[in-house]
Each structure stands twice: as structure tokens, then as C-alpha cells.
């Protein structure tokens, strides 16, 4: 029987554990904090829980447009804290029950490699050494803290202090305008806080399609979010009444709290990688298309592998690793195509995209056909009093194959699934047009954009 040891119980680790055990491996899953990982404890789940509450507040502000009297909804901070914990606890129970049912041994402790085939785990009760035929390093990442910032969990926060913070900010200065930064801007502005966003470039979401980023910037400005564009934070002053974030262009953003959202660093230190001969580059563990490190039986997945830092990608890597270890890759196994991973940004408007972006195609000179339809073209958008949104599809003009797409507007994260399937399965725009979709529904905008 293959002895498989996994370090890290996040999406990469727990998915690999479930699949490998199901396929017949003897699996030990080691976790130092919580099975479910940072994804459950600090990242995807608590952030989306709080954003859902913020979304309910914004919806309550829009109900007048639906023929209802306006009711002002206020946040109950303690109820919110309980809700975040309850959802995490529920998901944790669900996951540990699943792992138990598959016969996965769950070991709480801190693990490190002591050789190519041996892992040592420091547990509350002592030290345990485990021999392994295959090892997965799925240790995730943690927020990046620059040396000029000193988070105290009270006024200067990392994302991990924000679910919710001890006191709700009156005025939050968010440093960093990538996906995490804009989600926190959205979350706290929905709760009624004033927000200033420090944007180091000239566009929020610098990696995204400019049209998509512009739609979000518009919405943020309509919520009175202040944007400090082209400014890099370089110092945070903390006083009795609040914080002052000093930028390199001389501007100072004052607020009651500051929140750092400037990326993450991989958890590869203290893992004993040298003892096993595993290479590291910039803290990440480079992997091949089977997620193997330079040592063939030692795999890496999730944030520590330096690929797309998404929970969905981590889980997919975990599943592929289980298949590879158990020899299934010789039969029905496709490699992960990271360029075809769908992703979403949970703001208002919600944003989701997949595959080739219009700007990427222009940059490489690739010929594409771009079609765009506003949400408002559908009856459902009017019925639901939806704020503006659009669907954009990028396809190959010669074959009609769907190459990518972006959706901006409510339920974008759900609707993108149709385009993700089309991109992965090489479907054509005509396949979407030929699908008889529900009426009235927002998905009709997809069908129209595919025409
Ligand atoms: C604020 C925020 C929101 C996010 N929202 C989303 C989202 O909505 N959707 C999405 O797809 N992605 C989201 N992400 C990204 C997502 O959280 C990560 O990509 C995902 O958690 C990575 O999974 P992982 O398996 O690599 O590790 P993690 O979830 O980071 O888990 C790794 C685990 O390894 C454990 N560990 C580390 N070292 C050791 C050791 N030596 N011994 C034992 N255990 C160890 C850690 O305790 C941790 O529990 C978000 C990220 C952030 C910061």
C-alpha cells in the first residue's frame, strides 16, 4: 500500500487526502492549525461570509426600487463574529467527517521533512516520525507584512484580523488594490465605513481587463471610496485616535484603521526542504505538470507551489496528485491548464473571468471576436432591479471556439461556470446559442453575447 503523508490541511492537502484514500493509499494528513486550512479560517470562507452580509445591506438599500419601503440595516458585530465562527465550524465538521469516512489519519501537529522519505511531526503529546512513499507539501501562504508596517490587530490590521476586527472601523485605509484589497474595500464600505484605497498603479486590479477594472472603479467612486492612485504606502503612523498612512508621493491617508492587503508569502520556511533535497525559488517550491518537485515522490500544491493562488486551483492540484500517485494518470488524466482557471472577485459589481482576456489577445496580436451584452438587455435584470453589468465573450473568429470571457455584475461568479465549461471543453459560441436556457434569467445575456 502507498504510504502518503500530506503536510497542510487546506484545499490542496485535504482534497489530495480524500482522493488518494479513496483510491487505496494509506494517508496521513498533518495540520498545525485547523483542517480546512487558511482557506476556511482566514481567507475564502470568512471573507465571503462577511461580504455576503455586506451584500444583504446593499440590497436593503436598493429595495425602494422594488416597490418596498426602505429599511436601514445595521451590522451587529457580535452576531457577525458568531456567524463567521459557526460557518467555519460547520465546514470543519463536514470535512473531518469526510476524511474519517475515507480512512484518512488526521494528525494535529507541525511537520517537517528529515529526509526524502521521512517526516517528523511535533504534536502536543511529543514527536512522531513517519515514513512515506510519497509526500505532499501543501503548507499554503500567509499575509505579506512589509518591514515598515507593524500590525497590532487593533488599528493596523492584516486580513486575518478582520472577521470582524475588535472595533468596526469608521474610516478604513486599505493598502493594496489587488483582488484581496478591493474585496475588503467593498466589505467595509457596505458596512457603512468610509474607505480610502491606496492604489500603487493607475488602475485598481492592475492584472485585469481595463474595462472590467473601470467598472469597479466607477462603483467604488459612487460609494464615495477615495482612491489614492499612483501612490505607494511607505509608513503607518499610529496614534490614540487613528492611523496616518504616508505615501511615497507625499500624500497622507488618515483613518481610524489601516488594513494591509499587499500579497502573501509562501510557508516553506522550517519545512526541512534541504534535508530532502527539495529546491525552492523565492520561497516557492517549483513543480512540473504533475505537481512534482525536483524530487519525484515529493509533490507541492496550493499557494506554496507558486501557481495561481486560488482555493479551486489548490483542490484541483490535490486531486491530480492523488491520481498521479495511484497511477491513474496513465489512463484518464488531463494536466491542469492554469490559463483556463475561472476566478471571481466578490465586489459590487461582482467580477468573474476565465481564459483569454481581450488585452492579452491584443498584446500578442491574436485575432479574436469580442461580443458584449449588458445585463439590462435581459428581463431578469429589470425584474431583480440589478445594477448595471455585462457579459463579454472572446472567441476565435475562424472556428467560433470560446477562448475566454468576463462577466461584471450580480451572480458573475456563478454565471462564469458556463464560459469556464466552454473554454475547458473547447465548445463553440454556437453551442451556447443552441442551449435552451431558462427565461427569465441572467444567463440569457450569455446566450445573446454568444450570438
Ligand atoms: C483574504 C483572502 C480571501 C481569499 N478568497 C478566496 C476565494 O474566495 N476563492 C479562492 O479560490 N481563493 C481565495 N483565496 C486564496 C485561497 O485562500 C488560497 O489560494 C488557498 O487557501 C490555498 O490553499 P492551500 O491548500 O495552499 O493552503 P492553505 O489554505 O493556506 O492551508 C495550508 C495549511 O497548511 C498548514 N501548515 C503550514 N505549515 C505546516 C506545517 N509545517 N505543519 C503542519 N501544517 C502546516 C497551515 O496551518 C494551513 O492550515 C483568498 C485568499 C485571501 C488571503
Describe the structure in your own words:
It contains 13 helices and 23 strands. By secondary structure, it is α/β, with parallel strands linked by helices. The protein folds into three domains: 3-142 and 266-330, 3-Layer(bba) Sandwich (FAD/NAD(P)-binding domain), CATH 3.50.50; 156-262, FAD/NAD(P)-binding domain; 349-450, Enolase-like, domain 1 (2-Layer Sandwich), CATH 3.30.390.30. The strands form six sheets. Strands 3-2-1-7-18 form a five-stranded parallel beta sheet, covered by helices on one side. Strand 4 and strand 5 (118-123) form a beta hairpin. The longest helix has 25 residues, at 77-101. The structure holds flavin-adenine dinucleotide.
Note the main sheet: 5 strands, parallel
Assembly status: single chain
Radius of gyration: 23 Å
Instruction: Give the number of DSSP strands.
Output: 23
Features:
alpha/beta, FAD/NAD(P)-binding domain, 3 domains, five-stranded parallel beta sheet, globular
Offer a quick outline of the entry:
This protein is an alpha/beta fold.
Protein topology:
Layout lengths: L2 E5 L3 H12 L3 E6 L5 H5 L2 H19 L14 H25 L3 E4 L1 E6 L2 E6 L2 E6 L2 E4 L3 E3 L12 E3 L12 E5 L3 H12 L3 E6 L10 H13 L3 E4 L3 E6 L4 E5 L4 E4 L1 E4 L3 E3 L6 H4 L21 E3 L10 H15 L17 E3 L5 E5 L2 H7 L4 E6 L4 H5 L6 E6 L6 E7 L3 H13 L4 H6 L8 H8 L1
Parallel strand pairs: 1-2, 1-7, 2-3, 7-18, 9-16, 10-11, 10-16, 11-12
Antiparallel strand pairs: 4-5, 5-6, 8-17, 13-14, 14-15, 19-20, 20-23, 21-22, 22-23
Helix pairs in contact: 1-8, 3-4, 3-5
Flavin-adenine dinucleotide binds next to helix 1, strand 2, helix 2, helix 3 and strand 4.
